[in-house]
């Protein structure tokens, strides 16, 4: 069953008209147009389903207002609640594009620039919208029918759909958007072909059209067939169906960070010896991997095991992996200390490692025994999105841009409590003397990562300053304090 901590992602997307422009909700006067060349905040729409009639959808803008059409075809985006004029039906086309039909008035929505209306009785090119997903492209994929997660199966060279909890780096899939279609990329940078094989180059057989059915996703291949799990291990490949049924439907779920922790004694924190946590192992397995789930309100963190239990504070400061649900005693505060972290339990004490490796929350202050090295394991491919867009190579220089609608994929390499970040060209990030982040380093430079909020991290350069996007979009390593411009979805 889906893990409690994992929720299906709210479907957010941009809508692209026949001229290649995005539907935009302006903040001024709630005006609508289809003029923007790229997907930024004002072009993001959230799909909400009607609870009584799942065929009916509402489209909510970034301002929290709903798209509506009256009987004369006049389109507005001012309604702050769902009313009858806000009800639309999605009429999916064979190429994956959508026609949006007003449910009460049965007319179709379309147009260009400032000339948008919902009055067409027939669907022409002007009423067709391509869908560009706006969620972070790295996620876990859940089969609706099997209630199992997809993961890379190295030994079989396939994506298998047979995992109960999306565990480890193998369960991370990256959606790559290319010319209106999507490819599925595994953590070792291979693409899923429609015959179920994994290939190193993307092409016609690796490109899928996304379709929505009752709020779930279906992936249609170049032959008009749909991906579905096949056989006992749930090999992901195209089946015979040319219409998606339950077997062909998937949820995308947020991929929480998964980490391994090394104590001062150089051993990994583990649950291998039973419920009590101890730093006594020399190798990393699922038993030494923990999922960090950060509470949106308190920013405290739970640590979940591969068995689905949570760390819990018990009598006398003991830490056990015995909690089956989240409570106050399973929440911990994380203090980021550069290359190390310290964890504070709800008794106000820091967790320390005893001589026998046992973890106890009994310390009043942070010394060597209270420090742990935390290593993020399930983001070998790093895609970062800030408040203004994705981080991408600058077109004509060695700088990085933090406000793009497309993303570059960087690799994240752990190095003794810090990380090296490199581009596809194999060159490394570094902060130059002017405080600009450059991407053409010959030698690796240390950056530290802080998992601070639900779904967001901060990065510090070796100067201990935060990486942030400035007004013009350029990535700088000069942030003195943590601001919204220094938080990145990852």
Protein described:
- By secondary structure, the chain is mainly β.
- It folds into 4 domains: about 10-135, Trefoil (Acidic Fibroblast Growth Factor, subunit A); about 140-255, Trefoil (Acidic Fibroblast Growth Factor, subunit A), CATH 2.80.10; about 260-370, Trefoil (Acidic Fibroblast Growth Factor, subunit A); about 380-490, Trefoil (Acidic Fibroblast Growth Factor, subunit A).
- Helix content is about 0%, strand content about 45%.
- The chain contains no helices and 49 strands.
- It has an 8-stranded antiparallel beta sheet with strand order 11-10-9-8-5-4-1-12, with no helix packed on it. Strands 13, 14, 15, 16, 17 and 24 form a 6-stranded antiparallel beta sheet that branches. Strands 29-28-25-36 form a 4-stranded antiparallel beta sheet, with no helix packed on it.
- β4 (about 45-50) and β5 (about 55-60) form a beta hairpin.
- It is globular and about 75 Å long.
- The two termini are about 25 Å apart.
